[in-house]
Amino acid sequence: MKRLAPSILSADFSQLGKQIQLIEEGGADVIHVDVMDGHFVPNISFGAPVMKSLLGKTRLPFDVHLMIERPDDYIGDFVTDQTEYIVVHQEACTHLHRTIQLIKSYGIKAGVALNPATSPDTLNYIFEDLDLVLIMSVNPGFGGQKFIPAALKKAQELKKMKEARNPALCIEIDGGVTLSNVKEVMDAGVDMFVAGSAVFGAPDIPQRVKEFQRVLKVEA
Ligand code: DX5
Ligand code: ZN
Could you give the number of structural domains in the chain? Predict the structure, then answer.
Protein backbone atom coordinates (compact mmCIF):
# COMPACT_ATOMS: atom_id res chain seq x y z
CA MET A 1 0.00 0.00 0.00
CA LYS A 2 1.27 3.45 -0.93
CA ARG A 3 1.20 5.95 1.93
CA LEU A 4 1.22 9.75 2.12
CA ALA A 5 3.24 11.35 4.91
CA PRO A 6 2.72 15.12 5.09
CA SER A 7 5.66 16.91 6.74
CA ILE A 8 4.68 19.23 9.57
CA LEU A 9 7.81 21.29 8.84
CA SER A 10 5.65 23.26 6.42
CA ALA A 11 2.67 23.54 8.77
CA ASP A 12 1.59 26.72 10.56
CA PHE A 13 3.25 26.01 13.93
CA SER A 14 0.94 28.45 15.69
CA GLN A 15 -1.96 26.10 14.89
CA LEU A 16 -0.25 22.75 14.74
CA GLY A 17 -3.09 20.77 16.34
CA LYS A 18 -5.62 22.17 13.86
CA GLN A 19 -3.34 21.58 10.90
CA ILE A 20 -2.94 17.95 11.91
CA GLN A 21 -6.73 17.58 12.03
CA LEU A 22 -6.90 18.92 8.47
CA ILE A 23 -4.47 16.34 7.06
CA GLU A 24 -6.24 13.59 9.00
CA GLU A 25 -9.58 14.77 7.61
CA GLY A 26 -8.15 14.55 4.09
CA GLY A 27 -7.00 10.98 4.69
CA ALA A 28 -3.24 11.28 5.32
CA ASP A 29 -1.59 8.03 6.43
CA VAL A 30 1.39 9.14 8.48
CA ILE A 31 2.81 12.35 10.03
CA HIS A 32 6.38 13.10 8.92
CA VAL A 33 8.32 14.79 11.72
CA ASP A 34 11.40 16.71 10.51
CA VAL A 35 13.88 17.26 13.32
CA MET A 36 16.82 19.57 12.48
CA ASP A 37 19.66 20.51 14.79
CA GLY A 38 21.45 23.36 13.00
CA HIS A 39 24.59 21.19 12.76
CA PHE A 40 23.88 18.24 10.49
CA VAL A 41 21.71 20.58 8.44
CA PRO A 42 21.87 24.39 8.29
CA ASN A 43 18.54 24.93 10.02
CA ILE A 44 16.79 24.29 13.34
CA SER A 45 13.20 23.03 13.38
CA PHE A 46 11.79 21.54 16.58
CA GLY A 47 12.38 18.67 18.96
CA ALA A 48 10.58 15.87 20.76
CA PRO A 49 8.32 18.08 22.97
CA VAL A 50 6.61 19.49 19.87
CA MET A 51 6.01 16.00 18.47
CA LYS A 52 4.76 14.78 21.84
CA SER A 53 2.31 17.70 22.06
CA LEU A 54 0.44 15.98 19.21
CA LEU A 55 -0.03 12.72 21.12
CA GLY A 56 -3.72 12.09 21.50
CA LYS A 57 -4.56 14.92 19.08
CA THR A 58 -4.34 12.50 16.15
CA ARG A 59 -4.44 8.77 15.57
CA LEU A 60 -1.86 8.96 12.78
CA PRO A 61 1.51 7.31 13.37
CA PHE A 62 4.72 9.37 13.48
CA ASP A 63 7.57 8.96 11.01
CA VAL A 64 10.50 10.70 12.70
CA HIS A 65 13.22 12.01 10.38
CA LEU A 66 16.26 12.90 12.48
CA MET A 67 18.49 15.34 10.61
CA ILE A 68 20.80 15.60 13.57
CA GLU A 69 24.30 14.72 14.67
CA ARG A 70 24.75 12.10 17.42
CA PRO A 71 21.22 10.67 16.93
CA ASP A 72 21.88 7.91 19.49
CA ASP A 73 21.70 10.53 22.25
CA TYR A 74 18.16 11.56 21.29
CA ILE A 75 16.43 8.48 19.87
CA GLY A 76 14.86 7.60 23.24
CA ASP A 77 13.17 11.04 23.37
CA PHE A 78 11.14 10.22 20.25
CA VAL A 79 9.86 6.85 21.44
CA THR A 80 6.08 7.02 21.95
CA ASP A 81 3.14 4.67 21.39
CA GLN A 82 2.49 6.50 18.10
CA THR A 83 6.06 6.41 16.78
CA GLU A 84 6.14 3.99 13.87
CA TYR A 85 9.53 4.80 12.34
CA ILE A 86 12.68 6.52 13.53
CA VAL A 87 14.94 7.42 10.61
CA VAL A 88 18.58 8.46 11.01
CA HIS A 89 20.97 9.74 8.38
CA GLN A 90 23.64 7.42 7.03
CA GLU A 91 25.98 10.42 6.92
CA ALA A 92 25.43 11.23 10.62
CA CYS A 93 26.13 7.75 12.00
CA THR A 94 29.63 6.46 12.62
CA HIS A 95 28.24 3.19 13.99
CA LEU A 96 25.13 2.77 11.90
CA HIS A 97 24.60 -0.89 12.76
CA ARG A 98 24.55 -0.03 16.46
CA THR A 99 22.13 2.86 15.89
CA ILE A 100 19.71 0.64 13.95
CA GLN A 101 19.78 -1.91 16.78
CA LEU A 102 19.15 0.86 19.30
CA ILE A 103 15.99 1.99 17.47
CA LYS A 104 14.76 -1.59 17.24
CA SER A 105 15.43 -2.20 20.93
CA TYR A 106 12.52 0.17 21.63
CA GLY A 107 10.21 -1.90 19.40
CA ILE A 108 10.20 0.83 16.74
CA LYS A 109 10.85 0.33 13.04
CA ALA A 110 14.28 1.54 11.93
CA GLY A 111 15.04 3.60 8.84
CA VAL A 112 18.10 5.16 7.24
CA ALA A 113 18.04 8.32 5.12
CA LEU A 114 20.41 8.88 2.21
CA ASN A 115 21.46 12.36 1.13
CA PRO A 116 21.35 13.00 -2.63
CA ALA A 117 25.06 12.14 -3.05
CA THR A 118 24.98 8.97 -0.92
CA SER A 119 24.76 5.60 -2.64
CA PRO A 120 22.38 2.78 -1.60
CA ASP A 121 25.52 0.58 -1.67
CA THR A 122 26.52 2.13 1.66
CA LEU A 123 23.66 0.09 3.16
CA ASN A 124 24.87 -3.18 1.68
CA TYR A 125 25.91 -4.79 4.95
CA ILE A 126 22.88 -3.75 6.98
CA PHE A 127 20.25 -3.98 4.27
CA GLU A 128 18.35 -6.92 5.76
CA ASP A 129 18.20 -5.13 9.14
CA LEU A 130 16.31 -2.14 7.78
CA ASP A 131 12.57 -1.49 7.86
CA LEU A 132 12.80 1.66 5.74
CA VAL A 133 15.16 3.57 3.47
CA LEU A 134 14.47 7.27 2.95
CA ILE A 135 15.72 8.76 -0.29
CA MET A 136 16.38 12.49 0.02
CA SER A 137 15.26 14.10 -3.21
CA VAL A 138 16.47 17.52 -2.03
CA ASN A 139 19.42 18.47 0.16
CA PRO A 140 18.00 18.27 3.68
CA GLY A 141 17.46 21.40 5.71
CA PHE A 142 14.53 23.23 4.15
CA GLY A 143 11.05 22.64 2.81
CA GLY A 144 9.92 23.92 -0.56
CA GLN A 145 12.96 22.92 -2.65
CA LYS A 146 13.01 21.46 -6.12
CA PHE A 147 13.03 17.69 -6.68
CA ILE A 148 16.44 16.28 -7.75
CA PRO A 149 15.70 13.85 -10.64
CA ALA A 150 18.60 11.46 -9.81
CA ALA A 151 16.47 10.33 -6.86
CA LEU A 152 14.31 8.37 -9.32
CA LYS A 153 17.26 6.24 -10.39
CA LYS A 154 18.12 5.66 -6.76
CA ALA A 155 14.55 4.52 -6.09
CA GLN A 156 14.72 2.06 -8.98
CA GLU A 157 18.01 0.70 -7.69
CA LEU A 158 16.63 0.33 -4.17
CA LYS A 159 13.54 -1.39 -5.48
CA LYS A 160 15.72 -4.06 -7.07
CA MET A 161 17.67 -4.52 -3.82
CA LYS A 162 14.39 -4.69 -1.91
CA GLU A 163 12.90 -7.37 -4.16
CA ALA A 164 16.03 -9.50 -3.96
CA ARG A 165 16.89 -9.10 -0.29
CA ASN A 166 14.24 -7.41 1.85
CA PRO A 167 10.71 -7.51 0.36
CA ALA A 168 9.11 -5.95 3.46
CA LEU A 169 11.28 -2.81 3.19
CA CYS A 170 9.50 0.53 2.86
CA ILE A 171 11.08 2.90 0.34
CA GLU A 172 10.33 6.50 1.27
CA ILE A 173 11.02 9.66 -0.71
CA ASP A 174 11.38 13.11 0.80
CA GLY A 175 11.71 16.52 -0.81
CA GLY A 176 10.08 18.34 -3.68
CA VAL A 177 7.22 15.87 -4.13
CA THR A 178 4.22 17.55 -5.75
CA LEU A 179 1.05 16.53 -7.55
CA SER A 180 2.97 16.99 -10.82
CA ASN A 181 5.68 14.42 -10.12
CA VAL A 182 4.13 12.00 -7.61
CA LYS A 183 2.99 9.52 -10.25
CA GLU A 184 6.48 9.32 -11.77
CA VAL A 185 7.97 8.85 -8.29
CA MET A 186 5.45 6.11 -7.56
CA ASP A 187 6.34 4.31 -10.78
CA ALA A 188 10.01 4.29 -9.70
CA GLY A 189 9.08 1.97 -6.82
CA VAL A 190 8.51 4.31 -3.87
CA ASP A 191 6.13 3.20 -1.10
CA MET A 192 5.87 6.26 1.16
CA PHE A 193 5.71 9.88 0.00
CA VAL A 194 6.63 12.87 2.11
CA ALA A 195 5.08 16.15 1.03
CA GLY A 196 5.51 19.36 2.99
CA SER A 197 4.88 22.55 1.07
CA ALA A 198 2.69 20.78 -1.49
CA VAL A 199 0.24 19.86 1.29
CA PHE A 200 0.45 22.66 3.86
CA GLY A 201 0.89 25.38 1.23
CA ALA A 202 -2.39 24.43 -0.43
CA PRO A 203 -5.41 26.71 -0.05
CA ASP A 204 -7.52 23.71 0.99
CA ILE A 205 -5.35 21.23 2.89
CA PRO A 206 -7.80 18.28 3.17
CA GLN A 207 -8.62 18.63 -0.50
CA ARG A 208 -4.91 18.55 -1.43
CA VAL A 209 -4.38 15.41 0.64
CA LYS A 210 -7.29 13.81 -1.22
CA GLU A 211 -5.74 14.81 -4.56
CA PHE A 212 -2.51 13.04 -3.61
CA GLN A 213 -4.41 10.00 -2.40
CA ARG A 214 -6.32 9.77 -5.67
CA VAL A 215 -2.96 9.17 -7.37
CA LEU A 216 -1.44 6.95 -4.66
CA LYS A 217 -4.39 4.75 -3.84
CA VAL A 218 -5.07 3.66 -7.40
CA GLU A 219 -4.19 -0.02 -7.63
CA ALA A 220 -1.41 -0.68 -10.11
C1 DX5 B 1 13.82 18.50 4.08
C2 DX5 B 1 12.80 17.72 4.89
C3 DX5 B 1 11.57 17.43 4.12
C4 DX5 B 1 10.81 18.66 3.72
C5 DX5 B 1 9.86 18.33 2.61
O6 DX5 B 1 14.96 18.69 4.82
O7 DX5 B 1 13.34 16.49 5.30
O8 DX5 B 1 10.73 16.53 4.82
O9 DX5 B 1 10.12 19.24 4.76
O10 DX5 B 1 9.25 19.51 2.21
P11 DX5 B 1 8.83 19.73 0.71
O12 DX5 B 1 7.82 18.68 0.39
O13 DX5 B 1 8.29 21.11 0.72
O14 DX5 B 1 10.08 19.59 -0.14
ZN1 ZN C 1 11.95 14.81 6.10
Answer: 1
- Using a 6 Å cutoff on CB, does residue 134 contact ligand 1? no
Mean of the per-residue pLDDT values for the chain? 98
Measured in angstroms, how far is the CA atom of residue 209 from the centroid of ligand 2? 17
- pLDDT tens digits, residue range 19-45? 999 999 999 999 999 999 999 999 999
Would you say residue 219 has pLDDT above 70? no
User: Any bridge partners for residue 136, and if so which?
Assistant: 174
Residues tagged active-site: 34, 174
Give the residue numbers spanning the domain of 43: 3-219
CATH number at residue 183: 3.20.20.70
Label residues 57-86 b or e (16+ Cβ within 10 Å = b). ebebbbbbbbbbbebeebbeebebeebbbb
